[in-house]
Every structure is written in structure tokens, then in C-alpha cells.
């Protein structure tokens, strides 16, 4: 099962086990500024660790935590 969120620049997807959502199967991070067709998953690059952590927290917080500014 997947949970995805999109910002102006990134698409972040967290794949979790169907029966236990605490088990993470995979994580995807795509930079649409540099890779608009999502050919390269940059989630595992060390320089993106903070962005993955921040995106994970935002995704888990849900849409209620999203600012109303666009």
C-alpha cells in the first residue's frame, strides 16, 4: 500500500506493508525540477536524508498539518 504527497517540487511516496503499516517496504522521492518524468528515485541519497525525514513527518501528520498557503 502506498501513501503519497506532492509539493511544488517533489513527490514523496511511502510504501508500507498491507497488514502492518509500521513496516516500510520502500520510499520514493522524485525531484520534478530535475526529473519531471520520475526516472530517478533520490530517496536513498545521503544528501536527501533530511528531506525524506521531513517529508515522512509531514505525510504522517496528514493533510490537517498542511498550511493553507499555496
UniProtKB/TrEMBL annotation:
The keyword Cell membrane is assigned to this record: no
Keyword Manganese among UniProt keywords: no
What GO cellular component entries does it have? Answer: cytoplasm
Q: Which UniProt keywords are present, listed alphabetically?
A: Hydrolase, Metal-binding
Origin, by domain of life? Answer: Bacteria
Q: Which Gene Ontology molecular-function terms are recorded?
A: iduronate-2-sulfatase activity; metal ion binding
Q: Which InterPro entries match?
A: Alkaline_phosphatase_core_sf
What is the recorded name of this protein?
Uncharacterized protein
